Amino acid sequence: MNKVILMGRLTRDPDVRYSNSQNGDQLAIARYTVAVDRRFARRNAGDNQQSADFISCVAFGRQGEFAEKYLKQGTKIALTGRIQTGSYTNKDGQKVYTTEVVVEEQEFAESKGAASGSQGGYEPQGAPAPEDASAEGFMNIPEGIENDLPFK
Questions:
Q1: Collapsing DSSP states into helix, strand and coil, what is residue 53?
Q2: Which residues contact 46 (CB under 8 A, 6 or more apart)?
Q3: In Å, what is the CA distance from 69 to each residue of 64, 83, 131?
Q4: What stretches of the chain show up as alpha helix (H) in DSSP?
Q5: Are 75 and 108 in contact, with CB atoms under 8 Å apart?
Q6: Residue 83 confidence (pLDDT) above 50
Q7: CA-to-CA distance for 7 and 11, rounded, in angstroms?
Q8: Residue pair 105/79 in contact by the 8 Å Cβ criterion
Q9: How far is it, in rounded angstroms, from Cα 105 to Cα 31?
Q10: Please, how many CA atoms are within 13 Å of residue 104, restricted to the half-sphere of its CB?
Q11: What are the helix and strand counts (H, E) for the chain?
Q12: How many CB atoms lie within 10 A of CB 75?
């Protein structure tokens, strides 16, 4: 099985090019790099150090069009795909080996507000305030709705 799941931030805007497909349509090909956090413990220190792996990704067709339209440097995304390896000979005659993730699905991993630096996240409308809770941390049920509750 060849399945990859990643979450990280784009290191730069996607590089999108169009190629003619076999049936004459234009096929979007988007290439970008995702910085994925890597945590490891140093033997000498008790704290965790953090670094990142930089993963090359390529998205074809609709996924490539999505990348062109919506993704930009710094966008946090979650993606699934498969690892693909290849090789080519460069202009100096040396063989170069490549590894990249072929994107099958991609989606935003944070809200638009969080991406722009605000608090972001989901905040339900009309949510009760914490001070409305009882001392045990539970909300008091308003009078007259006992029969409408899905539990008793």
A1: strand
A2: none
A3: 9, 24, 43
A4: 61-70, 112-115
A5: yes
A6: yes
A7: 13
A8: yes
A9: 14
A10: 10
A11: 2, 6
A12: 21
